[in-house]
Amino acid sequence: MIDFCLVGAGFIGPVHAANLSAHPRARLAWVVDLNVAAGMALAAQHDAHATSDLGEALADPNVRAVIICTPPRTHTPIIEAAARAGKAIFCEKPIDLDMTKVDACGVALAQTRVPFCVGFNRRFDPTHRALHDAIRAGEIGRPEMLVLSSRDPEISPPDYVAAMPYGIFYDTMIHDFDMVRWLLADEPVEIYARTACMLNDKENPHRDPDTAMVVLRMAGGTLVHVNSSFRAVYGYDQRIEAFGEKGMLISGNQQATTLERHGKHGIRRDPLLYFFIDRYAESYRRELDAFVQAVEAGTAPAIGFDDGRRALMIAEAGVQSAKSGMPVTLTN
Amino acid sequence: MIDFCLVGAGFIGPVHAANLSAHPRARLAWVVDLNVAAGMALAAQHDAHATSDLGEALADPNVRAVIICTPPRTHTPIIEAAARAGKAIFCEKPIDLDMTKVDACGVALAQTRVPFCVGFNRRFDPTHRALHDAIRAGEIGRPEMLVLSSRDPEISPPDYVAAMPYGIFYDTMIHDFDMVRWLLADEPVEIYARTACMLNDKENPHRDPDTAMVVLRMAGGTLVHVNSSFRAVYGYDQRIEAFGEKGMLISGNQQATTLERHGKHGIRRDPLLYFFIDRYAESYRRELDAFVQAVEAGTAPAIGFDDGRRALMIAEAGVQSAKSGMPVTLTN
Amino acid sequence: MIDFCLVGAGFIGPVHAANLSAHPRARLAWVVDLNVAAGMALAAQHDAHATSDLGEALADPNVRAVIICTPPRTHTPIIEAAARAGKAIFCEKPIDLDMTKVDACGVALAQTRVPFCVGFNRRFDPTHRALHDAIRAGEIGRPEMLVLSSRDPEISPPDYVAAMPYGIFYDTMIHDFDMVRWLLADEPVEIYARTACMLNDKENPHRDPDTAMVVLRMAGGTLVHVNSSFRAVYGYDQRIEAFGEKGMLISGNQQATTLERHGKHGIRRDPLLYFFIDRYAESYRRELDAFVQAVEAGTAPAIGFDDGRRALMIAEAGVQSAKSGMPVTLTN
Amino acid sequence: MIDFCLVGAGFIGPVHAANLSAHPRARLAWVVDLNVAAGMALAAQHDAHATSDLGEALADPNVRAVIICTPPRTHTPIIEAAARAGKAIFCEKPIDLDMTKVDACGVALAQTRVPFCVGFNRRFDPTHRALHDAIRAGEIGRPEMLVLSSRDPEISPPDYVAAMPYGIFYDTMIHDFDMVRWLLADEPVEIYARTACMLNDKENPHRDPDTAMVVLRMAGGTLVHVNSSFRAVYGYDQRIEAFGEKGMLISGNQQATTLERHGKHGIRRDPLLYFFIDRYAESYRRELDAFVQAVEAGTAPAIGFDDGRRALMIAEAGVQSAKSGMPVTLTN
User: Fold this and answer.
1) ipTM of the complex in this document
2) In 3D, which of C7, C22, C113, C14 has the Cα closest to residue C63?
3) Min Cα separation D137/chain C (Å)
4) Chains in contact with B, counting 3 or more C-beta pairs less than 8 Å apart as contact
5) What is each CA distance from C197 to B144, B214, B328, C29, C215, in whole angstroms?
6) pLDDT tens-digit profile of A206-244?
7) pTM of the prediction?
8) Is A126 close to C256, i.e. CB distance below 8 A?
């Protein structure tokens, strides 16, 4: 049984807490949140301790692992503290929004050698994974084009948007950039991005990009397109299409039921699942299970610090291209 | 170029007339109809002669083939006249509603040896045919169950219904009975049928069955289900499912476009094609082309007199079962 | 927290045990099995007690509910014992294979007034339930026809088949008979069934029917078709189609992923889920949760004793029809 | 009855010839081809005259319309000759590869005022048109993103490629550029393109781009992505996806049948139609019918000279971007 300390009782924290509780070999021991009430409420649901003092939780010798669900700009100090305490670390993406901080954190982390995993949960979605495995098994031969549709049904609340400008790159497409690297086992050499503000002033008061199209060129030659929006009114639209010399693979969307309704005006099926937590429920479970297994086995988690760093680097270059209107070269 | 005489300018006549005109090696020479105006109108569209006197058209030595599209009870005398005149004959189904007349007609026809074809057009539908070919090629091994859905969007007009009681057997499911024989290359040994009147008195004033379920047992053991209705408000529903020891084949429905509309309330595609003439447009073209080819080549048409007779025999037994509520044994 | 005693550590027992353990307000306290090793193994996985003596477990005053997963012919004495002990009862279907025993059990049970639920899990499948809700909400108006495909990928082992002849009725289609009653809120008045042995002597040594087609007439007029097979090599095939005066609803099959593979030879998607435990994983979770809620609230479980009895009665009449070849009238 | 002169008996010529012959109010009167044998062969099939002298055919006063199917670089002189002869003109795309020639031709044409139509047949595909109509009717509100997949199963023969470098822009994506303009009723202001050579030296000896990704920004703000390939081994892949503030529309691919094959290894449907002539058979028929109707009515054909010119302008800018690696601004 592995005891966990969860830092950040907000948005995604409860998802991880519930998955921990349902896991046969993991347990939520501590919830850390500066918002004491929020931390206590979540802790109470899972028979865990609550504290606003990270140090207190890290001092518990039974705690073997930390899950970091706080806002991105707070990640690196928590990572460093947890690493110094010798805990295995699971950190939500992005590691941070500032590459300098990320690099410093990476150095600190490397010295401790604690297990570290970034929460790119989409790698654990069964259909995306089946697509990955088919590509890697050579089913479509050399991948020639990749097309990713990555669309949220709604924009985040204004204060969340204000705290992370160009969040469509740093928060949303960063998932796709990770998927591209993982699916192709390759790195991009160039990125071109165009963005737009399609939502009105009330929906998007900060006029932060809510719509984006990206083209990536990979070192191995594959051309990649990613498109993203914060207004997919029809649901959380998450598709990946891999085109290669021997065929095409499509990872499609998910619906709540398979019901088909035939009427005078056509055939209607369920809308797409609307919330990312519903759409990726299974991948959240599986990523946590994989992390538990890695901690148990003492092996490196599937998605390392460098993966988090590289996805951020692509996001950063994408923002630069969107701002300049010019393609940006990526180097390592 | 083969000159045709078309008898019956009503419902399905214009479909065959248009297909004849578009065929590179066939020509509509005569339209025969007791309704002079209707015959002349159709003839005029296709630069053909019109007459109400079948004998006049049959006397034209250039006419090599006759297409019979009149009401079922008029078929046998026309078949016999055309056969005596030595013309190749394409006759709409059913051959007649009275087995005694059919048998007498069969004897007369056999003496002349003219080519004869029954218009079971569904055999020429590309998807049904692909299903047929897959079964016959052994793709699903021994066929164990067959399920046919055969539903019209509307009931026929009252006078049409009055002229052909139990038309759901004689006019609609007779197609399915032919499909079953053709798909399985086997004959039924027993039929059980249950019917209902679901439409209201205004829609179905004669209280003729408008809904039916049938179970057939084939000589080779396959179990077959057919269901039929005259109220598929969502369109002309025509599916066939073949289940066997190695898998299942499904011949699905047809829609006008592949457009998919994603909205808040779900994903909507086009309704099914509504009119049987749209749904089976391609099969009407192909059955006529096959008949033209058979006449040209002097070979027997694909669907002979005995096929028409046997499908009628099954329909008759089905009606008997529906009336008695008991299964009926079929013999040959 | 509700403590459960699970009786029968075999086939479906472990599914319920795992769902109990994952449930936030239920706990597996006892596993009862005559096979001591099996009982202990399952109990050990869930920190429960094991015994071969049902009385010992029922004597535990903390136990509030019993789940019965033993072979059908052993159900009624266990139900009666649990009822006498005042425990809430969840019993797998069928209640028994012998209507006399079922009726006697029903009398005994009625005297105790303990909550009782039959495990017709399919009622809890999200898509079947969406279909149910749409019918009951009048979306297709009056239901005119119902078509259920209910096919297992494999036949049960020979000893299981030997213990329950005509299991295709008593064990498989009994689910469909329950669905028909639930979906239509109506009772059948007549059943006609035809069966066949399609598997070979090695696969089906007892020559018990492995293929079946059924037609039901409901009191309200709806015509119903059920077809079933123990050889759906392509996976666990579970579809329901409801046809009514305003449209059609189809509850379709389930697959592991949505991956679509485009190649020279066509477009391939995943096969259907193969095991019923995978296909109905969600419905097993939901039926247990509903039972827990009913026990907590002191309300009657969703699927009562009479539901179990009536489904069995239909199965029995179906067997009688299959044996005689004649339709059988159902009375209440 | 409108008499046509068809110029160019090669690739697409026979398609138009067959559609003319099947049209109830059009007739193929002349086939003009420098390759006398090819011209005579096609003419013979349709009872038309053959000549290698365009002037001879244009001198026929019965000829009211000309269809130009010759290689692109020969189009403008033929257009000008036909225009001088006062014939209505239907010209395959692209009008030419050289904008200077196109502009000169446009001037000449404008002076004659003969009806002129460019063969952007995709506008007449029923599904693409349904998507167009839905956008224009406001079904998705303001269009925010458009994604077009435009993939051929094979590259053209080497000599064809040599005659038209960057044919993936001039010959293939020019269709998509036209579709974008038509679907959005808007013009692009910027284009970015990246290309690759994925085929091997034997398949693509001239190392002409066989793979491309394009991003367009429209004057109205819509972001557009087009991807294209000459190696869709799974068939002719032609999809359009329109995303807007109220939903998404997808115009999907086409298959020969709806047959679904269920086996142990999955569910298989037909591959996509492989040849563009099969995929767009209906749109070729409809574009010709629309042209015939326009000539009959004396109205302007649906797709004018300026449409041809603008699509070419976008293709040209795309090639410039592909060569420079920089986005290119489009002006009118």
Assistant:
1) 0.96
2) C7
3) 27
4) A, C, D
5) 10, 20, 22, 43, 19
6) 999 999 999 999 999 999 999 999 999 999 999 999 999
7) 0.96
8) yes
